[in-house]
Design brief:
The protein has six helices and seven strands; from the N terminus they run ββααββαβαβαβα. By secondary structure, the protein is of the alpha/beta class. Bound molecules: guanosine-5'-diphosphate (GDP). The site of guanosine-5'-diphosphate has 16 residues, from helix 1.
């Protein structure tokens, strides 16, 4: 009898479905890691680098899909990457932002399959309000967090290292071994390997374990101030 392939081949990731609401998401039976980040942080580029496919992120960038939750299946049945809408997308009306905030909250609150979060931040602008909110949510729920400090190439080595150390120290104090942090550049050729190995270590392997559930998984994004 052949043994199933348990190695994740990110390059085999395939777009599965876009969901505007929780009830449009695929069945809540597998395990998934969600990529979150402020708009323009570099989330699509990171997903592209990880999966070595430019077309995947383009799927998420298709007009009309930017505010949707996009699901990508992996080669292991039941495992998924989820691309959450970029927070603070400038070109959408405030009503639409509030609409997706409610659905993001619903997704985070109810999605049993969610086993890890990859939070993408521009290394030059780390820990903004949305990032803080996601960290707080991970802290409250115990869902593991992997932080990608992207666009490392935009900073000199010294400042990039200082930011990495600072973010790592701050988050370790709050999340202990449930958080990992790395710098990242989508422009560097082997970026996908570092992203894949770190994401795998930080999050996707944890998919296979069950995280403890806590009574309140609400992000409470509705309570956030409206963004300018
Ligand atoms: P998203 O809105 O978070 O999905 O961000 P994108 O992946 O679309 O990236 C936003 C902009 O930043 C684009 O112009 C990308 O080419 C650029 N970008 C993304 N990652 C990097 C990176 O690692 N280095 C540099 N220099 N630019 C990047």
């Amino acid at each position: 009898m052949s043994t199933p392939d348990l190695v994740i081949h990110y390059n085999l990731a395939r777009f599965e479905i876009s969901a505007a609401r929780l009830d449009q998401c695929p069945p809540d039976t597998g395990a998934e890691v969600a990529f979150a980040g402020r708009s323009n942080a570099g989330k699509s580029s990171a997903i592209n680098a990880l999966t070595q496919q430019n077309s995947l992120a383009r799927t998420s960038k298709t007009p009309g899909r930017t505010q949707l939750i996009n699901f990508f299946s992996l080669n292991i049945e039941g495992l998924k990457i989820v691309d959450l809408p970029g927070y603070g997308y400038a070109k959408v009306p405030i009503a639409m932002k509030q609409h997706w905030q409610r659905h993001l909250d619903a997704y985070l609150q109810h999605r049993e399959s969610l086993r890890g979060v990859v939070l993408v931040m521009d290394i030059r602008h780390p820990m903004k309000e949305f990032d803080e909110m996601m960290v707080h949510w991970c802290e409250a729920t115990g869902v593991p967090l992997h932080v990608l400090l992207t666009k490392e190439d935009k900073l000199k080595r010294g400042p990039a290292k200082n930011t990495l150390l600072h973010v790592k120290k701050t988050l370790k104090e709050r999340l202990g071994d449930k958080v990992s942090v790395q710098t990242f550049s989508a422009l560097k050729a082997p970026a996908w390997t570092s992203c894949a190995s770190a994401s795998t270590a930080g999050c996707l392997k944890i998919c296979l374990r069950k995280t403890s559930t806590t009574p309140d998984r609400s992000l409470n994004v509705d309570k956030e101030k409206p963004r300018p």
